[in-house]
Specification:
This protein is α+β, with helices and mostly antiparallel strands. It is 19% helix and 31% strand. The longest helix is centred in the C-terminal third of the chain and has 23 residues. The protein starts with a strand and ends with a strand. Strands 6, 7, 8, 9, 11, 12, 14, 15, 19 and 20 form a 10-stranded antiparallel beta sheet that branches. An 8-stranded parallel beta barrel has the order 21-22-23-26-27-28-29-30, surrounded by 5 helices. Strands 5, 10, 13, 16, 17 and 18 form a 6-stranded antiparallel beta sheet that branches. The chain is globular, with a radius of gyration of 27 Å. It is built from 11 helices and 38 strands. The model has no long low-confidence stretch (mean pLDDT 95). It folds into 3 domains: 297 residues, Beta-galactosidase, Chain A, domain 5, CATH 2.70.98; 302 residues, Aldolase class I (TIM Barrel); 94 residues, Golgi alpha-mannosidase II (Immunoglobulin-like). Its EC number is 3.2.1.22. This is Alpha-galactosidase. InterPro entries: Aldolase_TIM, Alpga-gal_N_sf, Alpha-glycosidase_related, GH, Glyco_hydro_36, Glyco_hydro_36_C, Glyco_hydro_36_N, Glyco_hydro_b.
Amino acid sequence: MPIVTVAERPDTWAILTDKSAYVVGVERADGDVRVVQWYWGPRLPVAALAETTRFPAPRLMASFRDPYDIDEILPVDGGRRWGVPSLRVSYPGGVRSVELAFAGVEQEADALEIVLRDVGYGLRVGVHLRCAEGTDVVERWVTVRNEGAEAVQVGRLDSGSWVIPEMYGYRASGVSGEWSAETALRRTELAVGETTWTSRTGTTGHHANPWIMVDSGEAIEEAGEVWTVALAWSGSWRMTAQRRPEGDLAVGAGFGHEGVGWQLDPGEVLTTPSALGLYQDGGFGAVSRAWHDYARRYVLPAGSEDRPVLYNSWEATSFHVTEAGQLALAREAAELGVELFVVDDGWFGNRMDDTRGLGDWWPNPERFPDGLSGLFDGVRALGMLPGLWVEPEMVNADSDLYRAHSDWVLHYRGRRRDTMRNQLVLNFARPDVRAWALGWLDDLVRDYGLAYLKWDMNRSLSQAGWPEAGERADLLWIEHVRGVYGIMDELRRRNPELRLESCSGGGGRVDLGILRRTDQVWTSDNTDARDRQAIQHGFSQLYPANIMSAWVTDSPNPLTRREVPLRYRFHVAMAGVLGIGGNLTRWTAEELAQARDLVAQYKRIRPIVQHGQLHRLVGDPGVTASALQYTRDDEVVLFAYNPFALRKQSPRRLRLAGLDMAATYEITSSDDEAQTGSRWHAQTLMSHGLAIPTWSPLGSDYRSEIVTLRRVS
């Protein structure tokens, strides 16, 4: 019974989860009717829900601002509202004031639609709420239907506004960065006014990610109340935290960005992506674990599967792809225990470098005169699954595709067509482009029996015109993304065993929308182990380890030129989905032997890492000594890192978290042989801790270790 009608208030509803309650309802005051959020926080008894609507707190009244509009779950541009709108519509004749009236509800056991109408212009607005069983995540989205006789222009349509309970202060947590330095965790006090995070690039973006966590400034990793809002969308997006001078805070989230609008013809419906809200009282760690569980259970297409250890050929061969060269790498990879071999860029068309060939998706006739069958038959003979890199949304001007279909790219008539990475963007809002892409993708998968596609996107949208669409051209900002979604969905439907990876120059397209149709993401083009620790730390705030692709590459690192020992590189990558991307034909016999042992070790701990509960135990990853813990059922895996000797004071012991306090645990493997086989009470491990050799003040830079434990009683 996750959605209930509140007793005494037939126009008020509550979503009840295991740990939280979310209460919304109709408020009638001063001749106005609004749908407001009454409460969001710890779960209340059913009998107490109506009490959240009693005696609304008084507010300072003045003729310059309506103090109540921030409570609305869908504030509009109209009436006495001057805050951030979730809905802005321009009606015929230039009328821009939206007046919505409550028109009823449509309720199911786990879903609710609150119906609002602007009767003067025939606009029907549905505010949808849903909650899956066994999760604390509340899902909201909005539908707008034009039931009038004339077209209207929608200038903004968010998935709704979330009200954060009043506190003396508000702190926002999120991630920011850039290409090769994604998902850096930032925490800062929210200033009075409007703070907006956005992407205008047409994709999720490297510089920010569409989620925010809000607390009073007192929450820590394992304690404190935290509210989160996340948007499931892979195109341009916008999230605004509006902190009012009188102390209120609301967070609005939606697709699109300023300056674009969407024409809605009579009978048409515009549906937003989902915005998801989560409350937890257990600190940032509890929030992360709740999001990880939700993603694995309700977002990912195959969230319960173990992800294979993969090898990718890009850093070894770049564009110089040949059958003999790839098979040489495949033989080395198979010897290490790799399970999936992925051929990256350079296998198709006239693709000798990044200036040409993109869009011509057939095997290069000089490098592969007999196609890719020989290569992938060889990969399968070595006991590995075959995978391939593709970039369906892009085209080079120097390609057969562009010469035949130059009108397929985003462009405005009479304007130049700027390239980035020598690429133009194909318009996936067009049905003919989508049909072309689905056709060759499906053929590739079927012809070569592919198990895996790495779907890349290496530039942002620019000159985003669609001349044939006329006044409706701005819809491409929505329909391009939905076109990508649709092709991925149909490709998986036709090929149920196929698995997909989302890549956009690294972590440029990571969000809960793309994850509904992909299995993992390429976290960053930066594979430097020390940099990756910080990147993976920020990534883990919302996303689980079983989607986080992490490669071991050569040293010095191809990007940073930093030298890091192989063991440390592996231990960092083993905290996610392990991959290898180095030139194995140049690794020494000692390196290959060590890598083989580490791959075998990863396979033993893989179920715990990929599906276990994460505790970020201590430290500033990549800067100071730090540690991670993954726990699943009776098994525990600890990762301890120390990048610098003697420069930062390390704790002498590592205190664990989240154990069964009544249980005893046995150390099943450790660098300290004297500890292996020893048994410990959980209370000792959590209160006193383990001595960690990696944290000794004596030793070299870049020390790391893995400790495993098992509950024995």
